[in-house]
Amino acid sequence: MDKKLGEKGIILGDIPDALALTVDLFGFSNFLLLYLDEKEIIYKLMDFFQERIFNYLKYLLEKGAVTIYRICGAEYATPPYISPDDFDVLVKCYDKELVNIIHQYKGFARIHCHGKIKKVLHYIKEMNIDAIDPLEPPPDGDIELVHLILKLKKILSVL
User: Fold this and answer.
1) Residue 82 included in any domain
2) Cβ(45)–Cβ(77) under 8 Å?
3) Model pTM above 0.85
């Protein structure tokens, strides 16, 4: 596909992450209730989906569909719905594996995450993503671009 596009375009792909597919099974409200009471069921479902997503993504990358992939689903694990530490378990641990394989094939990984990301930025940074969208200022989000840049500089200086 890259050869057909040449200098005329960029291949952009969207893939759901394991959290997105798990939430889709129940709807967001029911997912939140189930996650409170039955975390192990959620983790088993996410592991099931992760294996399939990874294999599908690897197939696409091996076939040459390599440029930018937007990974969708992280926004389901942001405050105030779920604690920042749960973002690590529900998003970072799964999506980092997808980011790594995208990078292995010289592609770029972009995470799609609406909402209040300020308290999960360090986890997002640990995923080694190349881009994030959208970045929403208050009241929908909780960080302005200038503050994000300052916070990322602080995170980078600590690492």
Assistant:
1) yes
2) no
3) yes
Q: What is the pLDDT of residues 52-101, one digit of tens each?
A: 999 999 999 999 887 899 999 999 999 999 999 999 999 999 999 999 99
Does 4 reside within a domain? Answer: no
Q: What is the CATH number of the domain that holds 25?
A: 3.20.20.210
Q: How many domains is the chain built from?
A: 1
Per-residue CA distances from 20 to 45, 94, 103, 153, 159 (Å) = 11, 11, 21, 30, 29
Residue 76 in any domain: the answer is yes
Give a yes or no: residue 3 inside a domain. no
For residue 155, report the phi and psi dihedrals to the nearest 5 degrees: -60, -45
Domain that holds residue 46: 9-158
Sequence-separated (6 or more) residues with CB below 8 Å from residue 74: 17, 19, 87, 91, 95, 111, 112, 113, 124
